[in-house]
Design a protein that fits this description.
By secondary structure, this protein is of the alpha/beta class. Helices cover 39% and strands 15% of the residues. The strands form three sheets. Strands 2-1-3-4-8-10 form a six-stranded parallel beta sheet, sandwiched between helices. The chain has a two-stranded antiparallel sheet with strand order 5-6. Helix 7 links the parallel strand 3 and strand 4.
Length: 310
């Protein structure tokens, strides 16, 4: 069977499987019973909510916004938050992207601009409160959204972040699902991801076609901007970490970021390829059979980020 026929069979299989709404139960994040805890307890996740009247000592601390990826929740950065808890010099704001952490229909209706608005909302709240040392770390689509903010000129009229870190930022996908969506469009209603019952509480099991299209759209925007060339805000440091064998975000993403993004003075940014075959290598909780190498990679990234927050 030639490649064209294989593609047709694949497309028919997807359409026949995904041509109606998914069967959603309340043991899934997609359902009506499980919500991200930051929605009803924001002060445990957002610095702006926990310290609405910061003291001078509070304002002297370094704040880092931790931004999760597509279909995920604040859980994606909980390991970093727990690891960083003993620090006296920094605090973490775990940002929940708008449209996420709620039911399937809320996710389905969200646009990538909605996802980004959660980042800018917390950033501007911190800025208004008087914080001057703010950084960001984004995993997967969280990194893509950071790149979009840079290239859009958002920081031209806001406080320049001190540091930006990208973990497996997706600019070019390893999985070609986005291309398939473009071919068969509305016939593909959703895709289903094989994940554990525990992961079902923190990631959407069903990914609506509409949100896959949104993800594809923001990647296109970022790719085009990187092709045109982008400069970081003055005095902002950026490092991109990327799994060498990432099954979701092709390591080509890191090449495009390195070539297309420069410091404000025209210098190169820092990129580190990790000996890893998992997507978002900093998240090991709920993964089975984690290896010493995977744990070492996570610690390496966490330690480098923490060093910059002093």
């Amino acid at each position: 069977m030639n490649k064209s026929n294989l593609l047709i069979v694949f497309l028919i299989a997807i359409v026949s499987y995904s041509c109606s709404d998914p069967a959603i139960t309340d043991d899934l994040l997609d359902g009506n019973a499980i919500f991200d805890p930051s929605l009803y307890n924001p002060e445990q996740f957002l610095v702006s909510a926990k310290y609405p009247n910061p003291t001078a000592a509070d304002l002297d601390k370094h704040i880092i916004l931790a931004i999760h990826g597509y279909s995920a929740t604040t859980f994606e950065w909980q390991e970093f938050a727990d690891w960083s808890a003993p620090s006296s010099s920094s605090r973490i704001s775990q940002v929940l992207l708008d449209g996420h952490g709620r039911d399937y229909q809320s996710f389905k209706a969200s646009k990538w601009q909605d996802w980004s608005s959660a980042i800018t909302k917390e950033y501007e709240k911190l800025e208004a409160l008087g914080y001057t040392k703010i950084s960001m770390v984004g995993s997967s689509t969280g990194g893509t959204l950071i790149l979009q903010l840079i290239s859009s000129g958002y920081f031209n009229s806001h406080l320049h972040p001190q540091n930006l870190f990208l973990v497996d930022a997706i600019v070019v996908p390893s999985v070609k699902l986005q291309s398939v969506v473009g071919l068969i469009g509305p016939m593909l209603v959703f895709t289903e991801v094989d994940q554990t019952s525990e992961e079902n509480k923190y990631w959407y099991r069903f990914r609506p076609q509409e949100t896959i299209t949104e993800l594809n759209d923001v990647m296109k925007v970022v790719r085009k901007n990187l092709e045109d060339g982008v400069k970081l805000p003055t005095d902002t440091y950026l490092k991109a970490f990327h799994s060498l064998h990432d099954p979701v975000a092709s390591s080509t993403s890191s090449v495009l970021i390195y070539k297309g993004l420069k410091t404000s003075s025209g210098g190169n940014i820092d990129v580190q390829l990790m000996d890893s075959d998992i997507h978002v290598f900093t998240r090991l909780n709920l993964r089975s059979d984690t290896t010493p190498l995977q744990k070492a990679n996570r610690l390496d990234a966490f330690s480098q980020i923490a060093t910059k927050l002093k």
